[in-house]
Amino acid sequence: MAGELLKRASLAGWSRPEKAIAAAIVLVTAAIVAVLVGGARVLPWQTGAEVRIDRQDQVRSAATAGVLAFLDVDYHDMEARMKRVQALSTGTFKKEYASTAVDLKAAAEQAQAVSVGTVKHVAINRLTAQQAIVLVTASNVVSNSDTAATKATTECPHAGARCDQYRFVVTVSRVGSRWLLSDLAGVS
């Protein structure tokens, strides 16, 4: 479009300043059309609101991933699951989790435990540039040697399993460019 306008301009005998003005008008018009069609996301910068939304999305994602990793248990492969929790953690929580890893693995293997969690709701309670407090509700389906004879019910439609509901207060902290789980506490 800009090239065609410049071609016509040269045929019409426009001077060099007129060509420059025409080219600038074409570029500005193209930029306005791009913003109108693509929204603010096509701009080479983020607005304050977009920065806050991105940070909130990162915090929700980190809290969700941390809770899901924490609830994920399979006695067949506890090492990988515990490493996943460690990779998503920092600070005191990471140290405390590491100190219980041997006992957790032994208990899971002894009970032949398998646990799969689902995050239902995530709400940010407080958010700063370096830390967030997040409220997370989750459910968990647990099967182990004690639940093998359990029948399916309305509350837990999984035969041979137990269904649990959890509410967590999760703290995530910014470490470099990542948000990591730094505290997880159950709420009764």
Written overview of the protein:
By secondary structure, this protein is an alpha+beta fold. It folds into two domains: 2-42, no CATH class; 48-186, Nuclear Transport Factor 2, Chain: A (Roll). The chain has helices at residues 2-11, 16-38, 48-71, 78-87, 91-111, and strands at residues 73-74, 114-127, 131-143, 162-175, 178-186. A five-stranded antiparallel sheet has the order 1-2-3-4-5, with helices on both faces. A hairpin with a 2-residue loop joins strand 4 and strand 5. Helix 1 (2-11) runs antiparallel to helix 2 and helix 4 runs antiparallel to helix 5 (91-111). The longest helix is centred in the first third of the chain and has 24 residues, at 48-71. The termini are far apart.
Strand content: 25-35%
- Roughly what is the average pLDDT, rounded to an integer? 89
Number of strands: 5
Per the CATH scheme, the topology name of the largest domain is Nuclear Transport Factor 2, Chain: A
CATH architecture of the largest domain: Roll
Provide the helix percentage.
40-55%
Let me know the largest β-sheet: 5 strands, antiparallel
